[in-house]
Write a structure and sequence with these properties.
Layout: E1 2-6, H1 10-21, E2 25-29, H2 38-44, E3 47-48, H3 51-55, E4 59-62, E5 81-84, H4 90-93, H5 97-100, H6 106-114, E6 118-122, H7 128-134, E7 145-150, H8 153-165, E8 169-172, H9 195-202
Parallel strand pairs: 1-2, 1-4, 2-3, 4-5, 5-6, 7-8
Antiparallel strand pairs: 6-7
Keywords: Oxidoreductase
GO molecular function, one term: oxidoreductase activity
Protein name: NADP oxidoreductase coenzyme F420-dependent
Amino acid sequence: MKIGMIGSGNVGQVLTQLFVQAGNEVVIAHRGSVDALEDLARVLGAEAGTVEQAEAQEIVVLAVPFLAIKALPEPLAQDPIIIDATNYFPDRDAWIAEIERHKKTTSQIVAEHFQPSKVVKAFNTIGMTVLARLAQPEQPVDRIAVPYAGDDEQAKKVVASLIWTIGFEPFDLGGLATSFSAQADGPLFLVNETAPVLRQHLNPE
């Protein structure tokens, strides 16, 4: 796959490394200049580019603070799959009533900004300090599960395949409206476990 990574912090770097190791091509971008990313991109095996170049790929990963989403341009006409790897933290991103009151999920708000793009929530529940270590691409069973959610079934299949190829078990949460459990205040946040354990967290006795 051709993947655009928007964000060059810990999230962007770790995901880029895993995607490249799985055989994907990644263009990594940030708010600064392309030249400032050249060395990092070379180390990660990626290509440095502008935000617009990242958004021109088949898949676009949002690895930026939640509040920074509003400053990003809308994607180009090819309507890419957008992976929302962001997390909303009110002390950092400002208090947003719709999210705090669970009127909308964070990914629904992201989807509203990027319409008509196909948004899939994924890669936000596992800490980046351990994500690479937990990846088991050579292990077909008992993998750590990565929750994902989306309203476009074909886009979800693509993201589920990407989750699997980098070494995790895809864990389907349904549509964006039912992705509360994967948010920073949800029961699956920072739970690094297999799918059966995640189900227990969703349905405690």
